Amino acid sequence: MSGGHGSHLHLAGDSVLHRMPAECKLAGLLAFVLVVVATPPTTYWAFPAYAGLLAGTAAVAGVPARFVGRRMLVEVPFVLFAVLLPFVARGPRVEVLGLSLSSSGLVSAWGILAKATLGVVASILLAATTQQRDLLIGLERLRMPQLLVQIMAFMFRYAELIGAEMHRMRVARESRGFVGRDVRQLPVVAQAAATLFIRSYERGERVHLAMLSRGYTGSMPQLSSASATSADWVAAAALPVAAMAVAVAGWAL
Amino acid sequence: MGAPAGAAPSLEVAGLAYAYPDGHQALYGVDLTVRRGERVALLGPNGAGKTTLVLHLNGILSGGAGTVRVAGTSVGKGTLAEVRRRVGIVFQDPDDQLFMPTVRDDVAFGPANAGVRGAELEARVHRALSAVGMADVADRPPHHLSFGQRRRVAVATVLAMDPEILVLDEPSSNLDPASRRELAEVLRSLDVTILMVTHDLPYALDLCARSVVLSDGVIAADGPTGMLLADAELLAANRLELPYGFDPRVLPVRTAGVEAPTV
Questions:
Q1: Which has the closest alpha carbon to A90: A102, A98, A99?
Q2: Any idea what DSSP says for residue A220?
Q3: How does strand B39-43 pair with strand B210-215?
Q4: Which of A14, A197, B105, B191 lies at a 20 to 30 A Cα distance from A245?
């Protein structure tokens, strides 16, 4: 989710949301997103209501709108795809500003746009209020297989290091007059990538050696932190339950 | 250093020989005894077999001839867990050693693998971090620390296991002079046997009363560090060199402590 850039996704604070155990937040996020995805896109008024719920959550967490806005760039590819849909989809067409657009395409585009935006904002709120380490603990508590949690932990730890190594290699290359503008230069870049792969692989072996030397036998010791109380779970359920209420109202009306 | 008289030496290596699977022989019969509380420097040029020897001390490498005993326990298949708790290896690159999300988790990794839990684990982590002067960074991620701080935390990660012997691989490499001196002060304050692998001859003289020279897979010399470093022929024969202007004969000897055994 956040790769090596967790620190720029996280916003230090001490709100209810910051203090809530990560497993509750993760479960709450998942439930909220499921409700949003299950809502038919034609229930137009439900989506502003969801957005309002998220805005309320952000206010409680003390995360400013500008912070969220800047980090929404991840969504751009989805937006592009959604914008294309009305042009390429089939079926009855409508005229909008002189363009002939597919009406089913328009509805799908709206659905993708609205649902993706809500999902992204909710994820940004989670990342903003949760430390990487707590996310890992949360996943472990939610019975995510230990191997996957370990892989994510190592990714968090070493992504930055490998990025820095890649940067040093580029600086060294360019310091010797290399300009990577031409396709014919591609083999050089490919070789650098191969070197980086081998170096990372060797680092992996050295890390494993260091782990063995401290008694590693295949399972990581549990990271410690206070576990969730039922009050935490109730608080975490507030957002998805409210969203569910909106969705049910949408069905009933 | 409070070791009971007659206790087994921290480390006893006898007749250790080893060839890598590709046929390259790295060790040709190494004998080395390190007594309790001693600080010994293991000197030698690149390719002398230093790292190979270190990896035998906690059973990462094995299968050649000879024996390794740690505080009387022979290193073998059945004793690996015990031996790895007793031999604390600090590797050269702290980024290899520090792999957990926070400093606290990393220092807890070793003792947790040994089954220590709860308040006892907390106490161990705090004690180890305090010993290297890093208790106030416990909650930071390792990659936010300076290189010197990471090296000291790496020392804490093995101290937390209450090791019998601390093995340091090139502890002074890549450190600026101030971090180098701080690390030396930390190491001098520890009440533990130390085997220090290094090229840094002044650092060896500063910290270790005794040195052994490993060359071409055998121990070429073993004696008081000051005496070995004053022997220009010995140094030249083993590709060891003192920095420009450094003369061990005119320096006040700082390392009191355990006398080197006669050889």
A1: A102
A2: P
A3: parallel
A4: A14
Q: Would the CB atoms of A210 and B81 count as touching at under 8 Å?
A: no
Instruction: Please tell me which residue of chain B has the smallest CA distance to A216.
Output: B113
Give me the sign of the Cα torsion angle B69, B46, A215, B36: positive
In the beta sheet, which residues pair with residue B198? Answer: B43
Per-residue burial over B191-201, b if 16 or more Cβ lie within 10 Å, else e, is: ebbbbbbbbbb
- Check CB contact under 8 Å for A157 and B93: no
Distance, CA of B125 to CA of B94 (rounded, Å): 18
Alpha carbon of residue A245 to chain centroid:
25
B114 to chain A, any CB pair closer than 8 A? The answer is: yes
> In angstroms, rounded to a whole number, what is the distance separating the alpha carbons of residues A14 and B140?
17
Burial class of residue B84 in the structure, from the number of CB atoms within 10 Å of its CB (0-12 exposed, 13-18 middle, 19+ buried) = buried
Largest CA distance in chain B: 55
CB contact under 8 A, B113 and A221: yes
Pairing between strand B193-198 and B165-169? Answer: parallel
The shortest CB-CB distance from A214 to any of B93, B102, B161 is to B161
Question: Residue A73 in 3-state DSSP?
Answer: helix
Tell me the per-residue pLDDT of A136-167, one tens digit each, with 9 for 90 and over: 889 988 888 888 988 988 988 888 888 888 88
CA distance A2 to chain B (A): 14
pTM of the model: 0.80
Q: Is B51 on the interface with A (CB under 8 A)?
A: no
User: What is the least distance, in Å, from the CA of A229 to any CA of chain B?
Assistant: 20
**In this predicted model, what pLDDT tens digit does every residue of A44-80 receive, in sequence order?**
889 999 999 999 999 999 899 888 988 888 888 888 8
B120/A contact by beta carbon, under 8 A: no
A246 vs chain B: nearest CA distance in angstroms? 39
Q: Which helix H or strand E contains B43, and what residues bound it? A: strand B39-43
Which parts of A62-185 fold into alpha helices (H)? 65-70, 76-88, 103-129, 132-141, 146-175
Residue A77 identity (one-letter amino acid): P
